[in-house]
Design a protein that fits this description.
This protein has helices at about 1-45, 50-65, 75-85, 100-110, 135-140, 160-170, 225-235, 255-260, 305-315, 380-390; strands spanning about 95, 110-115, 115-120, 125-130, 145-150, 155, 175-180, 185-190, 195, 200-205, 210-215, 240-245, 270-275, 280-285, 295-300, 320-325, 330-340, 345-355, 370. By secondary structure, it is α+β, with helices and mostly antiparallel strands. Strands 3, 4, 5, 6, 7 and 8 form a 6-stranded antiparallel beta sheet that branches. The chain has a 6-stranded mixed beta sheet with strand order 10-11-12-15-16-19, sandwiched between helices. Strands 1, 13, 14, 17 and 18 form a 5-stranded antiparallel beta sheet that branches.
């Protein structure tokens, strides 16, 4: 009897296991179906094709498996991401990989990790064309006219300036050894890299006049502050009118253009506005000032984006004359959207309008006074014309 009971228990146990196994198999099948539906839905949402994500992964697999050459998975991924953005056909939209994103961020912050020197080409190597104040280079005694013969033992003769710059730059708190020729004597100088801030604004009084001259190289994170400080400094030196030089200024941050313009536009001026993809209008309004000074703005074919906003506003509001040649014509706004901490997508999000609602994309700003300047001109005729005009204003 006990043996019979034992056999029945084993039989019942076996049946339970089979039933449980069947339930598990059905459950897994259900999960697979649900996962497949979800994957297909996600694929449709992001690519417009139920098999879009599969096609992407399959293309990766085919290239990795059958390509005759060598290529890294990271290079394939970067290429795919770049391809997504490049399909837009918009030269101002791009995928920024790690190094590109770092360079872009440095440009917008007008800073980099280095030693603080300006360089130019020389027959025997690379010439130090200038040394920044309070920099590792100035503290090490490097000066204008010294020649950089080697970087960490690697000769600079024959190197491109961009490569020399890349070799000198590096992570903060790391060392670089320059072999420098100073007054005919060669020596090794060890320097520790640190964060270098590049001033984007420079100015001075035109000797013997009440005219100020201010140049903006680009609109980076601190440009508004730098401009306001320079503007106030020249005001304290007697500036009653001024020339604003935006030639070769590629643009930059719209909020900084607004901060700059606030020093010379009427109160509550809408410096720039645009309508985004969501249909909402965004306006950048400057507090402005009642103390308006006569001014002239210099532009050329390389003046773009934020510099065109400022020049266009001056023209729209009748604040001064624009002198030079037609500007570049980049009237679009880009947003930068991080993908991860190390890369991002820079994307055109709208076309901007100046104070009076003008769009300049593709057309640029036409100067009030056109003055050409040739590369081999020994006289800055554009600046000369600006001085002539501003001297006639009170």
């Amino acid at each position: 009897m006990k043996q019979q009971v034992s056999k029945w228990k084993e039989k019942l146990h076996g049946l339970s296991v089979k039933k449980a196994a069947g339930t598990v198999v059905k459950g897994l099948a259900g999960i697979v179906v649900v996962t497949g539906v979800s994957f297909g839905s996600l694929s449709w949402y992001f690519t417009g094709d139920v098999l879009g994500m599969f096609k992407l992964l399959r293309a990766f697999d085919v290239v990795e498996t059958y390509y005759a050459g060598n290529i890294s998975k990271q290079a394939l991924l970067d290429g795919a991401l770049k391809g997504i953005v490049s399909t837009l056909g918009d030269k101002h939209s791009e995928y920024l990989s790690g190094e590109e994103f770092e360079a872009f961020s440095s440009q917008m912050s007008a800073s980099y990790a280095g030693i603080g020197v300006y360089i130019s080409k020389a027959d025997e190597g690379v010439l130090i064309a200038g040394v920044m104040d309070d920099s590792p280079a100035s503290e090490a005694g490097l000066k204008r006219g010294d020649t950089i013969l080697a970087i960490d033992g690697k000769p600079t003769s024959g190197m491109e300036l961009a490569d020399v710059s890349d070799q000198i730059r590096g992570p903060v708190d790391t060392a670089v050894v320059l072999t420098v020729r100073e007054d005919g004597v060669d020596k090794d100088v060890s320097l520790t890299r640190r964060r270098i801030h590049i001033k984007t604004v420079a100015g001075e009084m035109v000797e013997g006049t009440d005219i100020g001259y201010i140049r903006i190289a680009m609109f980076s994170e601190d440009t508004g502050k730098e401009f306001t400080e320079q503007f106030q400094q020249l005001r304290s030196q007697g500036m009653k009118r001024f020339i604003l030089d935006l030639r070769n200024n590629p643009g930059g941050l719209v909020d900084q253009a607004t901060d700059v313009a606030s020093n010379f536009v009427p109160p509550q001026t809408t410096v720039v506005s645009y309508i985004g993809s969501d249909g909402q209008e965004t306006k950048f309004t400057a507090p402005g000032t009642e103390d308006l000074l006569p001014m002239v703005v210099l532009v050329n074919e390389n003046s773009a984006s934020a510099s065109e906003i400022v020049a266009g506003d001056v023209q729209d509001l009748g604040l001064g004359k624009i002198v030079g040649v037609r500007t570049y014509g980049k009237g679009t706004v880009q947003g930068v959207y991080p993908v991860t901490a190390d890369n991002a997508v820079k994307l055109t999000v709208a076309k901007y309008k100046t104070a009076k609602g003008r769009q300049v994309d593709g057309t640029g700003i036409e100067p009030d006074v056109v003055v050409q300047l040739q590369p081999d001109d020994t006289v800055d005729y554009q600046l000369e014309k600006a001085l002539e005009i501003i001297k006639g204003q009170e």
